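Data availability (excerpt). The following record was deposited with the supplementary files.
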Amino acid sequence: MSVISVARPSQAWYGETIGILILDASYPCIPGNIGNASTFPFPVRYEKVEGASIDRLLNQQDPDLAGPFIDAALRLYDSGVHAITGACGFMALFQHEVARNLNIPVLLSSLLQIPFMYQVTGKKIGIITANASCLRSEHYTSTGITDDIPLVIAGMENQPEFRDAILNEKGSLDSPKIQTEVVIVARKMVKQNPDIGSILLECSDLPPYANAVQTATGLPVFDFFTMINYVHTTLARTPFSGIM
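Predicted structure:
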């Protein structure tokens, strides 16, 4: 059987199905973090969004970042990836702008999973976010989250190690401390809202602690990794044994 492969203009290498947009920030990304390539059981490609600092994206929510996001996404597309994701849930602000400029799947924010989570559980969803004060209605509307989906929001912005290591980019990160912090936040959220049926770790820095959160709460835990792995599976299907 003849197989014809087609290259995109300027494509010089192959095999990276998922492209990941990275903030213009500097802090350690440990295994499990979306910014660490060893997190994935398949090759990924990164592209930095120039000027997209934590401050401009989370605090300022600067609409002028739309251009740099589109430009970085187009560079990933030209490199040959088949889907583009993000490495910060707050990239939801530019979900529509980037998707309109590409003809491949775009999944910039982990928040995109919330409608699915609600449909499969029928229960309230707990969101653990990097900064609860920065999560606004625009992030919900751009990811298809409707007003009838019950949400509980808990932030990490007051947890000392997470705040200093991630939000303030101090240059070092104590992973056991952050794990303790996120488990404390998760337990408190579930204790105050026992009708929560699932948890979303909005921040791309939190997947390393998903197992600890699930162990502490007994609930399904979604994050960037679950979303990216799911979409990658749809783009790289393999035949089942016994099927010709």
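Summary of structural features: The mean pLDDT is 93.
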